[in-house]
Amino acid sequence: MKMRNLIKLAVLLVFFPVVMLTSCKKDAPEAVNAYVTLKTYMVANTLDLPDLAKNWIVDPKSTNTGGIVDSAAGEIPGYYVFDIRPAADFAIGHIKNAVNVALKDVVTTAANYTDKPICVVCFTGQTAGQAVMALRLSGFANAVVLKWGMAGWNANFKGPWVSNSGHEVSANGNIAVGNANWVTTAAPALQSFDEPIWTSTSTDGAAILKERVQAVLNAGFTPAAATDILAAPASYQIVNYWSEADYLGFGHFDGAYDLPVIALAGDLVKAIDPSKDALVYCYTGQTSSIATFWLNVLGYKTKGIGFGANKLVYDQLKANAKPVYKGPKNYVTVSN
Questions:
Q1: Residue 54: other Cβ atoms inside 10 A
Q2: Are 272 and 217 in a shared domain?
Q3: What's the predicted TM-score (pTM) here?
Q4: Please, which of 74, 89, 233, 303 could form a disulfide with 85 given CB 3.0 to 4.6 Å?
């Protein structure tokens, strides 16, 4: 009898850990796709792209003509100005009272500047779009881009836009004219792709958003070169961020999709394949900058095309009163 009981006990000791381990495996929670949690949070908190892309950019007009710039003093008194250019460029010349901030630090720095809205300035207005979308996603709803960046403020800084638009040299801004890869054909049909799949260290929507915003800021900003895309558009997933009328009227990269509205609402964002790199372009490169930052926070792999159609068909845009670079103001700068 004792021997039989000992055998039973031995059997139990062997199988009990196996049963416990099996039970533990069954009880482990399934991995949750953080995209779904983030999407739900953003929709509930009015953080869809069409909501955020309202009144996000300001022209550097003087207060004498209804703008924001005190032209006599060379400052923007109604805003905190965050200049996100490298320190060496900032030292050469900047807007009076501007604060030099690295792109990756804009959100943490903004926590100390809360009693006025923030205006972000860079070289061209494009990198500033990244900063402004980061700020808007982080509770700074009135953050704005200074249109055209320092190239729109003072002639000493006009170089990037002069080299990439037709403002002074027509050839610099009309590289698509006559190119076989710039066409006026109808847009290919939009597809509907699966949502991005990625994980997070958190299961809370607000915490995930904060984590993702900082990750995209840390990644930096490098737009694609229009010349490279024009040479081989079939090699890329390209999204034209215009109306259909402009898509057809001004032309577009051969094979580019026309997606005038990018949004979580209606699953419009699913027209972009998250498994592939995507290039988004607009008139100036500034709107595509805010859009690509938002998309990358959601887990897409996107870049803007630098300087947008100002590099491609400047003369057509100008003739049709679309946004084009028209040169700098003559505001003063300070140095340190």
A1: 8
A2: yes
A3: 0.91
A4: 89
